[in-house]
Amino acid sequence: MRKKIVAGNWKMNLTFEEGQQLTSEIVQMYKDEAIQEVIVVLNPPFPHLYPVKKLVGDTPGVAVGAQNCSDKESGAFTGEVSTKILASFGVSYVILGHSERREYFKEDNTLLAAKVNQVLAHGLTPIFCCGESLEIREAGTHEETVKAQLTASLFHLSPEEFSKVVIAYEPIWAIGTGKTATADQAQEMHAALRGHLASKYGQAVAAQTSILYGGSANPGNAKELFGKPDVDGGLIGGASLKSRDFIEIVKSF
Ligand code: PEP
């Protein structure tokens, strides 16, 4: 059975103390409320990663992820952070291909493919984001656009490598806008993506790949989204900054 995952993307938010408090609250609620079948991934800004990992410790079901990484192994790349560094203190996931990185930092499919390779080379799990703009959605070419993103950045992987990847479908028009894709729209795209994976890697690999939905998910709409057969969890932005909201989303399965 594929994994259910809810990942919180803190983006460029929270001071050190706020991050510590949020982490402590989430870990405590996760334990107290006996959540077991959903993996939670906390993705804070880089300086928070080590202290957040210390707080999370070895709590089963709770993992720590980065929001980005270098495409290089190591060396003179001022300001960059390698997956080798991340792996060395227990970071286990990296978000790649988020639309904000594609748009503001001009990350393209080729660069993302190199980052995916780095993440896998050090035994971490990429959460690979894909999604279409409103313009593309309105033109009706959203499925082929999103499939092309996967093909360009992931389809060089062997089936064994690919089986470690998590996908996050994030329609750009729904990110931070309060405008969620309907559960039916999410299901339609997730099923199309799973079909695309099956055509490349076969049914077995496609069936075990977790595909998360991201875009204004909140405690009020998570249950309907997670109720769809091809929605295996969420990548949560704004609502991941409030422990109660985040945990309510996690408990929506
Ligand atoms: C995101 O940026 O990954 C995201 C889904 O943000 P929000 O939940 O705020 O729309």
Output the keywords.
253 residues; alpha/beta; TIM Barrel; eight-stranded parallel beta barrel; 12 helices; 45% helix; 15% strand; globular; binds phosphoenolpyruvate
Outline:
45% of the residues lie in helices and 15% in strands.
Please describe what this structure looks like.
- The protein is of the alpha/beta class and 253 residues long.
- It has a single domain, classed as TIM Barrel (Alpha-Beta Barrel), CATH 3.20.20.70.
- 45% of the residues lie in helices and 15% in strands.
- The chain is built from twelve helices and eight strands.
- It has helices at 16-32, 46-56, 83-88, 99-104, 109-121, 134-139, 142-154, 159-162, 183-201, 203-208, 222-226, 243-250; strands spanning 4-9, 38-43, 62-66, 93-96, 125-130, 166-169, 211-214, 233-236.
- It has an eight-stranded parallel beta barrel with strand order 1-2-3-4-5-6-7-8, surrounded by six helices.
- α2 links the parallel β2 (38-43) and β3.
- α1 runs parallel beside α2 (46-56), α1 packs parallel to α12 and α5 (109-121) crosses α7 (142-154).
- It starts with a strand and ends with a helix.
- The mean pLDDT is 97.
- Phosphoenolpyruvate binds next to β8.
